[in-house]
Hints:
single chain; alpha/beta; five-stranded parallel beta sheet; 5 strands
Amino acid sequence: RGGVVSITVSISIMGRRQTGGEISEEGLGKSGKQGRGADAQKHKAAKSVRAGKAARPGRSTHVRREEKEWSDSKPDTVADASADASASASAPAAEIPFPLAMWDLQQCDPKKCSGRKLARQGFVKELKLGARFRGIVLTPNATDCVSPPDRKIVKEFGIAVVDCSWAALDQVPFDKMKTNFPRLLPYLVAANPVNFGKPCKLSCVEAFAACCYIVGLRSVASRLLGKFKWGHSFIDLNRELLRLYAACETPEAVVAAQADWLAKCDKEASERIHQDFSEVSLDDADFVNPNRRVAEGGDDDDEDD
Length: 305
C-alpha cells in the first residue's frame, strides 16, 4: 500500500504541474493564472524602478531615498522658483544699471561678434525688427550726435545698437528699428581685432562704451570693455577724443569738437608729408622720432613697464 500511495501522489503532482493552467473546473487553472500574474507584477515593478518611474508600495528603500533627495532639491513653491531665476538674471543688471539691447541682423561672424557675446552673458537683450526701443539708439541714419545731455535718457531707458556688417549697410532695414532718440557717434577709432585702427567702424561693445563715456558713465564703459581682452585699448586709443566730447554741452558742440580734431589731424598729416627729413640732424636735441616713445625726465630704460 505504501508503494501505491507514493506513486499516486507523485502522479497527481506531476499532472497538476503539467495541466494546472488548463484545469479550470477544479480551480487549478485559476491558481496558475494568479501565479503568473504575480510574477508579471513583480517583473513590471522591477522594470519601473529601473526606468526611474514611481514604484508601487513594495519598492526598495534606496529608491525612496533617492526620490526624497530629489524632491528636497526642488523649489517648494512657484515663488521660490521665480526667485531663483530672478537672482541669476539680476547679476548683469547689478553690473549695468540700465537696459542694453540690439537688433541682430545675422550678418556678422558669431564667434567674433561682441554683441552676441554680451547677449550670451545676459548683458544685452535682442530685439526683433519692428520692435520699439525707448532709449538711445546708435544708428548711422540719425542726424544728432550723442552728447552729455543724453545722460538722463540713458540712465532711464538704456542704449540699443544695430548689429550688422559694415559692408552690408545698404541691406539694413533701419526703418523697422523704431525709437524716439536716434543718435550718431562722433569720430572714433576702432580697437577691435577685426577693424583695428579704422575710423568709425566700431564693434557693438565699443559703441555701447563710447556712448556711456560721452554721457559721463565712465565706470559702466569700463565694465563693458572689461569683458574683452582687447577692450580697454579702445579707451587708450581714443582717450583725448572721448574727453573732448564728454566736455561738450550740446550735440552741436560735439560736432564742432569733431571738426576741430579732424582739421588738426589733416594739418599734422600735411606737415609730415612736406617735411624734408634730409636736412634733419639725428644729433639735434629738437629732433624726436615719432615712432619711439621717450620718457619724460629720463631715458627709456628708467621708464616702468
